[in-house]
Amino acid sequence: MESVLRNTRVTLxxxxxxxSIFALPFALTGAVLAAGGWPRLPVLGWILVCMVSxxxxxxxxxxxxxxxIDAANPRTAMRAIPAGQLSSGFVAAFTALAAAIFIGxxxxxxxxxxxxxxxxxxxxxxxSYMKRLTRWSHLVLGLALGIAPSAAWIAVRxxxxxxxxxxxxxxxxxxxxxxxxxACQDFDYDRRVGLFSVPATFGLERAFWIARVxxxxxxxxxxxxxxxxxxxxxxxxxxxxxxxxxxxxxxIISPKDLRRMNAAFFTLNGIISVVFFLAxxxxxxxxx
Length: 288
What we know:
CATH topology: Tetracycline Repressor, domain 2
Radius of gyration: 19 Å
CATH superfamily: UbiA prenyltransferase
Strand content: under 5%
Order of helices and strands: HHHHHHHHHHHHH
Number of helices: 13
Number of strands: 0
Largest sheet: none
Structural class: mainly alpha
């Protein structure tokens, strides 16, 4: 039992479960828009369980699939599996358990969420192989997080609204853009071993411009979203803050200076997702 608890603790550290904050606010945004306020507590609870379990399965699977790649990359060689802290078998079992919890939680919501749950799980797990197949793997990661708000809408309504494609596209472009920037750290390694990424394909300078275009497109869609859902001045003010935070994110890193990448990637992106949710939620609640 002591060994299992230790391995579980190391696994949670490995998958950085606390970084669910990137996707969770967008899922809550979808839930609030669908319900016109807070959804019923049981529904909200199962949405949270779905979110955390799906992300946990995806992250653990990624570390499992990438174990050999991580071991050969100096930046990632100390991750739990290559460092010998966890066995591949334990991580595989954790992945299966998290996936089972996700499917079970989806079943507690409604029939459509259960029917779509395997597809959602396939999307979030498939990302782990994309860097071997396409330079645009960053957008697949973005889609994996971007389906969260659409899934939350379905969890609340039991049906879908095409307007939620705007939120999915915003998250996909936002995540894809900052993953392009994050991948710049592995530019040399990816080229050397033949892994696909935007930086490895186009170089650092062009990769930064591609990330900027993705984020600019996300900002344009944000303001279309405000109109589509008839949101008001609070949402507008919040989205202006999101735009400024994105601009600041790009100002603190450059192709020649990646030292503040962690601040841009973890701190700022966490703040951006929370501000996005709070702006939409506040607007929805005031209009009730």
